[in-house]
Specification:
108 residues, mainly alpha
């Protein structure tokens, strides 16, 4: 049993590492202007298309999470984790608003 859990964790770590490396590569490509260059060659805004694709993939991921939610397990776990999630979300929102107020909105 422990080997199966270790294998699953190892798989999760590999997926997270692949995501992180892919994200950093895309950030680097965007920073050096590769997407603008490709947009010029393709005749349409590649960055906008990738942004739209990003939104749709996020929607798919959230739908997957929602569809795999086990309401019985949530009921069994209790309401305390729900309050922790709400508190974390509120903390991130307050910190974000404070930083925007202190530093100003991002310039485009």
């Amino acid at each position: 049993m422990h080997e199966a859990v270790a294998a699953e964790i190892d798989c999760d770590v590999r997926v997270a590492l692949a995501f992180l490396i892919g994200f950093l590569v895309l950030v680097l490509l965007n920073t050096v202007g590769v997407f603008n260059w490709i947009s010029g060659l393709a005749g349409f805004d590649v960055g906008s298309g990738l942004g739209s694709l990003s939104g749709w993939t996020m929607l798919g991921a959230l739908a997957g999470v929602g569809l795999s939610t086990n309401l019985g397990l949530i009921r069994k776990t209790g309401i305390k984790p729900l309050f922790v999630g709400i508190a974390v979300t509120a903390s991130v929102a307050v910190a974000s608003l404070l930083l925007i107020d202190l530093l100003g909105p991002a310039s485009t």
